[in-house]
Amino acid sequence: MKTNVSRIPHCILGIFTLVVGSATCAQSGYQVPLTSDGQPDFQGVWGNNTITPVERLELFEGREFLTAEEMQLLAQTAGDIQAEGEDALFGDRVFASAVSGELQSSNDPTTGNYDQFWLAERIVHNRTSQIIDPPNGKYPPLSEEGIARSARMALVRNQNPANGERFETLDSHLDLSVDDRCISNGAPYLDSGYNSYWQIIQSRDYVVILQEMFHDARVIPLTDMPPVSAAIELWHGDSRGYWDGDTLVVETRNYSDKSDYSHNRAELNVERFTRLGDRQLRYQLTSHQSDTYSAPFTREIIFDYSDGDIYEFACHEGNYALPNMLRGAREEERREQERLTSRNGN
């Protein structure tokens, strides 16, 4: 199916919801509710289910926002595509599929992969990219160190059995990523549509952000508690928060350099949380990551309020795939040894 993004649909179909994006969605005269301690109240469950891609597509070069007609068309086309196939549309694939009119399939749809059942209802916001700085909507150029590290990571990915290569490349659990091993999927976890809910809990001196993915809880002090030593590196970094008017600002340092995720290797992440209304929260992340990018970048995501609950994501407890992949690697080695023995007549 091919689609012309300039035409205007007559209806909106599928599982996709239209909302107005952050530039115009703040409720007029909105007063942020307060906790019993007099702080802005962000408590509740918030979902990151936007279809807005992280980087701006060339089709929208020079444009920060979608028109209302384009938003309608994206919702209709994405719904049509989703209804035609069962393969899961993770992350940016929803937007890419809607723009191209063709299904952008997931990583490995040939062996019994995820389908749409596992994904949340997606929402159309009006930005053309999550990246708002640089203004072109794309990540800054890689630094020299970032170029070298990107090449190393590409080599590892190409040799990873999870990408369809032979199992002999899997010598140890250490050859797999930290999310394959159920250690971490990053904090903040910013992938949309899949385990993408956060529950925020507040007290006078702390904010807790419980991420659905890996049920990770970020405990963020709001006091003058001194930071941990720079020699101590953590998967989720060391966070401190403070209030800037009605905006919660969280600064995080001391990320482990073993992380696979870009902003979770940053020297400094600055997050800003601002309520735009009863059911929308503007989230901004500015990441300073000189080991990867030549300049900082900022992403903006609209989180939508959820009336549902977060349930435990028990990754490690059910991670039978990891030992099975190791067993598969050993079985491949055994078969290869039998083949060599048979060929040599021994």
Task: Tell me what the structure shows.
The protein has one domain. Helices cover 18% and strands 21% of the residues. The chain has helices spanning 68-84, 93-100, 144-158, 321-344, and strands at 17-18, 44-47, 123-124, 131-133, 197-202, 206-211, 216-221, 238-244, 247-253, 268-277, 280-288, 297-306. The protein is built from 4 helices and 12 strands. It is globular. Mean pLDDT is 83; it is low at 1-15, 20-24 and 161-168. With 346 residues, it is an alpha+beta fold. Strands 2, 4, 5, 6, 7, 8, 9, 10, 11 and 12 form a 10-stranded antiparallel β-sheet that branches. It has a two-stranded parallel sheet with strand order 1-3.
Quick take:
The protein has 346 residues and is α+β, with helices and mostly antiparallel strands. It has helices at 68-84, 93-100, 144-158, 321-344, and strands at 17-18, 44-47, 123-124, 131-133, 197-202, 206-211, 216-221, 238-244, 247-253, 268-277, 280-288, 297-306.
Morphology? globular
Overall radius of gyration: 22 Å
How many structural domains in the coordinates? 1
Question: Overall pLDDT, averaged?
Answer: 83
Low-pLDDT stretches: 1-15, 20-24, 161-168
Order of helices and strands: EEHHEEHEEEEEEEEH
**First-residue to last-residue Cα separation:** 57 Å
Report the sheet with the most strands, covering strand number, pairing sense and barrel closure. 10 strands, antiparallel
Structural class: alpha+beta
Proportion of residues in helical segments: 10-25%
